[in-house]
Design brief:
The chain is mainly beta. The protein folds into 2 domains: 26-198, Acid Proteases (Cathepsin D, subunit A, domain 1), CATH 2.40.70; 204-406, Acid Proteases (Cathepsin D, subunit A, domain 1, Beta Barrel), CATH 2.40.70.10. Helix content is 10%, strand content 32%. The two termini are 33 Å apart. Strands 2-3-12-4-11-10 form a 6-stranded mixed beta barrel. The protein has a 4-stranded antiparallel sheet with strand order 18-17-25-26. Residues 1-22 form the signal peptide. Residues 39-394 form the Peptidase A1 domain.
Length: 407
Amino acid sequence: MASFHYSLLFLLPILIISASNAQTPITLPIQKDPKTTQFYTTIQMGSNRATINTVIDLGGPFLWFSCNDYVSNTYAPIPCGSAKCEVAKGIGCVGCNLPPRPGCTNDTCGASPYNPYLDMLVSQGFAEDTLYAKNRVPQFLFSCMDKDFLEGLASGATGMLGLARTEISFHKQVVGKFNLPHKFSLCFPSSGIGKLSIGPGSGPAISKLLKTTPLIINPVSTYPIYVTGDPSDEYFIDVKSIRVNGEELSVKNSYFSIDENGVGGTKISTIRNFTALHNSIYKPFTRAFVKAAANMKIKSVAAVNPFRACFSSDSISKNPSGPLVPDIDLVLPGKDVYWRIKGANSMVEIDRKITCLGFVDGGSNPRTSVVIGAHQLEDNFLEFDLVKSQLRFSSSLLTQNKSCSRL
């Protein structure tokens, strides 16, 4: 995966709402880095309340950040062989032959933080410290990471906040400390500030816009390192087919299902910029979209890498909810249940003259057939209910004169 080197000042204040009672969510701000298009949030950790900017990773198993310059009197490494190490699924023991400091201790529970932008696992250690969200969250488990392995993260970010289905994910630890319902929601802004909320679900104004679909389990782990028999901790949904402008693509059903080896299916990713489709889905998908666009008098132009279908911007009409182009539906189980992708989420403006279909070719042998990327999630509200194992989702809020920055 390509790396990025850009300068960005993180001046966003920490907008964290206190969990004053069992039914008040804890909310973190989400902002989009315009250079890398990564979404990040801000937390505070340790006795000095260090401000740490973390890229949001829906599939990440835990919080990790660079401890090279981290100083805290309340920092404590997790001993290898301890009960907490077992909960964290620590791998062996790690040590350090330098003077002790956060991230450099002996007999420490082994962690394997993963930087997906480098596609690199690093041998580190688990620790715990106090996280501050106005309320104190004591003994919060996380992993250190060496600053030499931060390449690819938005400049100013020194870690990643993991939201996967694990015992030490960010949301799992928070709901446990505050006795909140095990739910969290994401609303990624196209501009302004969105939010990550942990605890009680959406209010009535949003609830009426949401559809529900089951979260399904991939029986084989999709993390770079795992024990045989471990299921995936990432979030999969059961897409049955894809429609373009109401017409279903002619694609083998087997691509949308998950086989016994954990191959296939559809997952949601916040570290993929754009939705990636198995090559055997992508080809008929782009053909169908180009044909439907031509029927709307939208003119095709030469492709711009990594996209295959691009158009003259002058030929695309717009309204407040984005470009007027063929609708894309991810068809889900149940009567009339689908996730509609409108123009604001399907199209990417390259420059004033060219606009492209913001989906990419995932190759002929991908582990997962459909990986829904972050661009397709912007200004869509997603609520992950891990009690009922359901995803509640909206299509673009822009069609309702709303947005993630105006909720």
